[in-house]
Specification:
The structure is a single chain. The protein has a domain at 118-219: Sandwich (Immunoglobulin-like), CATH 2.60.40.3940. The radius of gyration is 25 Å and the shape is elongated. By secondary structure, it is mostly beta strands. Helix content is 10%, strand content 30%.
Length: 219
Amino acid sequence: MSMITYNRDIPDGPHNPSADQPLMKDDTNAIDDIIAVDHRTFNENASGYHKSIHFDQNSGYVPGVFPVNPPQFFTGSSTTLPTFGFPNAFAQLFYFTGNAIDSSNQYAIATTGGVANSSGPNGSVMLFAGFIMKWGVAAIAKTTSTHGEGTVLFNTTGAAFPNHCFLVNVNLRSLNTTKIASISFKEGSESVTGFQYIFNVNSADTLDYTQFNWWAIGN
């Protein structure tokens, strides 16, 4: 964030009021600007309430009481933070700390025309205790009319897991229940960047099975 300038000791007794008036106007606007950084500002509903809490995270900043750069706290849904909030979600307090790949990059949802979409099929979110959940819908890459194999990459849902991928789950999406089909992730293929899957169906298929759902847990 850029610096907000304030002129101390204005107005000053010896000064001509007309000389101080422009500076007084600047100072009045500066008060409004600095309140709006973390609070609902003047002429807004719930004026004065916190909407976020920011700490200086510049690499050269050495805080006086924190041994490391402190986290940034945010509240609300996408109406206040369109990049990180989930549209129409309940407001909540959460924070980012550490490198972006360990924190803010792990919050992602699908977009439609660049606008956050709460019904988007792909996403990633941080959970309590440092866990990260990712989910999505992927197209089945068929190698024959009854078989398919492919790879799903987590970078379509924000970023790779920073440390580990603990669990992957997959299930088919179907337009037809008369054919018998299965999908599974390939044993040992799961990693921080993605996983591989195997698809099979008992008779030739071109349209009934085209996509599958997946989700993964890691940290």
